[in-house]
Amino acid sequence: MADGSSTFNILGTTEIFIEFEKLCTSIIAGVVDTLCADCLLGMDYINKYYVNLNNKETQVQVHIQDIIVDLPMENTMKTINVPGRANAFTYFHPNQEK
């Protein structure tokens, strides 16, 4: 599903904020009902923040304003669930899949 060629039925969009060492980034994300991960950051995010994936050093570099944030590639954070609220009401019928 994260192969760059799969199609998705986008239910809506939302702006998400991602914080790195107290520096905040944002991106408009599509909301879908099926995905291989909780969240995927694609080429739009990578290009907007000049993200470098350095496999040799096992680091991710994110450029925020004039600051470069270095992050380890291994998962060092616990999972954080943040409640969200839609801008418009959507009613789902029982057993409705879309």
How is this structure best described in words?
This protein has 98 residues and is mostly beta strands. The protein has a domain at 10-72. Helices cover 6% and strands 37% of the residues. The chain has 1 helix and 5 strands. The strands form 2 sheets. A 3-stranded antiparallel beta sheet has the order 3-4-5, with no helix packed on it. A two-stranded antiparallel sheet has the order 1-2.
Question: Which key features would you list for this structure?
Answer:
5 strands; two-stranded antiparallel sheet; elongated; 98 residues; three-stranded antiparallel sheet
Average the pLDDT over all residues and give the rounded result: 81
Q: Count of helical segments?
A: 1
How would you classify the helix and strand content by structural class? Answer: mainly beta
Number of beta-strand segments: 5
Spatial order of the strands forming the largest sheet: 3-4-5
The first-to-last residue Cα distance is: 18 Å
Name the poorly predicted regions: none
What is the makeup of the main sheet?
3 strands, antiparallel
Report strand %: 35-45%
Shape, please? elongated
H-E order: EEHEEE
The Cα radius of gyration reads 16 Å
Helix content: under 10%
